[in-house]
Known about the structure:
This protein has helices at 21-28, 32-39, 53-61, 67-72, 90-97, 115-129, 200-222, 239-249, 255-275, 282-293, 330-338, 345-352, and strands at 5-13, 17-20, 43-45, 73-79, 105-109, 134-143, 156-166, 171-181, 187-188, 197-198, 231-234, 301-308, 312-320, 341-342, 363-364, 374-380, 383-388. The protein has 389 residues and is of the alpha+beta class. The chain has 2 domains: 5-170 and 328-388, Peroxisomal Thiolase, Chain A, domain 1, CATH 3.40.47.10; 172-324, Peroxisomal Thiolase, Chain A, domain 1, CATH 3.40.47.10. The strands form 4 sheets. It has a 9-stranded mixed sheet, sandwiched between helices. Strands 3-2-14 form a 3-stranded mixed sheet. Strand 16 and strand 17 (383-388) form a beta hairpin. The N and C termini lie far apart (45 Å). Bound molecules: coenzyme A. Coenzyme A binds next to helix 2 and helix 7. GO terms for molecular function: hydroxymethylglutaryl-CoA synthase activity.
Amino acid sequence: MTVKVGIDKIGFYTPNLYLDMVDLAHARGADPAKYQVGIGQSKQAVIPPTQDVVTMAANAAAQILTPTIKTQIAMVLFGTESGIDNSKATAVYLAHLLELSPQTRAVELKQACYGATAGLQLAADYVRVHPQAKVLVIGADIARYGLRTAGEVTQGGGAVAMLVAANPQILELEATSSYHTADVMDFWRPTYRTEALVDGKYSTNVYLDFFAAVWADYQRQTKLTIADFAAFTFHLPFTKMGRKGLRQILPTATPEHQAQLTAAFEASQADNRDVGNLYTGSLYLSFLSLLRHGHLQAGQRIGFFSYGSGAEGEFFSGLIQPNYRQGFDDAGLTDLLANRRAVSVAEYEQLYNQQLSSDGQDMQLAVGQEQAPYYLAGRQHEQRVYRRQ
Ligand code: COA
């Protein structure tokens, strides 16, 4: 008998600051309805200099790890496109901060917003062969497009941490998936740049084309149809993008099922709408949002469309497990989002420009008001100084 493998637990972290999209629209001379409806975003996480992808990942992972689980983790697979070093993996810093066993394989995976999906699939295949092992999969990023750019409204940041294990509490991953790669220049960030280059409209078209291709191939491979799905979750750099994806396939469902899928989509975009773009973590925050705000039942099949510009797309599926609500801290996540402080546009712009400098100088960051257990205190001798409180 093959062992069930999938997502056992999910943790999520985003810093305690946000920018209201109505304030940003006013500051940029845009109609707030364009940001809220046209783009589909209400709030955007603002990342202070004391949080980077390593600390955000540690803050997300700390929610789902116990001393016993730490001893069972065989691998840390860290998906990010906001890495802090061209050589050393964020996963190694993370494994150290979390005090994982030295018998841990730790690597970073990069393919734009697709990295965490590569991690999830590699983790699932590993656990299918080693059912006693658990794998920590991370999707953590800071989405930066630049002040006063068209992409500014699609910024954000945070980390999703997933524990992949046999007999998972939340979701059994089904083994069949469909993936598609093409060399496309829709969004990229050469090593000399801190902000990405993007053709947002072209990227949206490539995303929709890739979704059509992998969804068709998935149906061909599995003989499943839209009728077999309770919900579809999408990579959501901004929520309108997934809405366009869903609209592409909705006409193939019955009217009653269309209403169910639309309601599920609303649940799956609720938290992304208030956090903004997570790059690698976006699809998994959307799944968490569905778990939190949807009305799911055991055995229901969920579809996942992952997309990383450049480009790689994948469609896969999983089955909701009976105790899925025990796999995440719903009340804790509600508090995390509700207790954030709104910053003014001026404060956001100041924080945006306060990242660690690129000259390698020693630097001490203004710490002291950290709400999170893990934070970045500065840089000394060209090494980041991480702290736990
Ligand atoms: N009220 C309601 N909707 C409005 C509006 C208003 N007053 N004004 C405009 N809109 C709608 C537009 O009709 C459009 O909707 P549509 O996409 O359904 O046609 C939407 O708002 C966006 O307007 P648009 O003029 O296309 O916006 P833009 O030129 O400012 O660009 C993005 C928007 C998303 C392309 C841009 O923010 C971007 O490039 N973001 C980065 C995207 C990315 O990173 N992609 C790669 C990762 S997968």
